[in-house]
Amino acid sequence: MSKSALVTGAGGGLGRAIALQLAARNCRVAVLDINPKSAGETVALVKAKDGEAIAIADDLTREGAPEAAIEATVKAFGGLDILVNNAGFGGIESFFEMSAKLWQKTLSLNVTALALMCAAAGRVMRGQRAGRIVNITSPASRMALPNYAAYAASKAGVDSITRAAAVALAPFGVLVNSVAPGMMDTEMQRVTEADLARVEGRNDLQAFLDERTRRVPLGRRVEPDEVAAGVVWLALDSPAYIAAERLNLSGGMDRD
Fold this sequence. Notes:
Blueprint: E1 4-8, H1 13-24, E2 28-33, H2 36-48, E3 53-57, H3 65-77, E4 82-85, H4 100-128, E5 131-136, H5 149-169, E6 174-181, H6 187-199, H7 205-213, H8 224-237, E7 246-249
Parallel strand pairs: 1-2, 1-4, 2-3, 4-5, 5-6, 6-7
């Protein structure tokens, strides 16, 4: 029997790659994105390969949106086997010019919405006594990044929520883990690095990007499909004794 999955931030980049790989494994996929057009495009790609998918267009920071997304998925598919919390936001600000607006925007999506998604999905999975949740974290959660502090702090929050959710849901056979991707050439990554170069006074963007890439022990950036494969492994294939773990897909940047 096919499994049902909900992937947030699935209108492009890593989220789209995850949705497509889950669909290729015969999962029915709910594609959630704040951009209705992007969500629809991902659904069309799934259906073009004879997969089953629905689009959910919503802002997860809206009150009630996390619960509504879970409800819509359960209504469409009759249950929820997999939740991938991929939606995220990151902004660059100089440490000495940080704003409450950026912190609120970052934490409301990356932390609060993710926690509420875990709880709402957890209630469904608790009743089923089965399910898997995969949260997307980041190597940034363990780094000192003065000009990216809100994002780094938010991902440390994701790590904490992952552990808490794993412990809360383990008695019901629900597995909660996370994946920490390295540098991916997604739209969010490109915008973030351009802003970081500007804030740090680096005028040669390509030289700045090359310098950052050289920090990766494997010597290259990771493709979204590679990270998606790790997410799908945790969602479908990993042993049922893995919980509260963090899978680092950072090419050796995150060595713990």
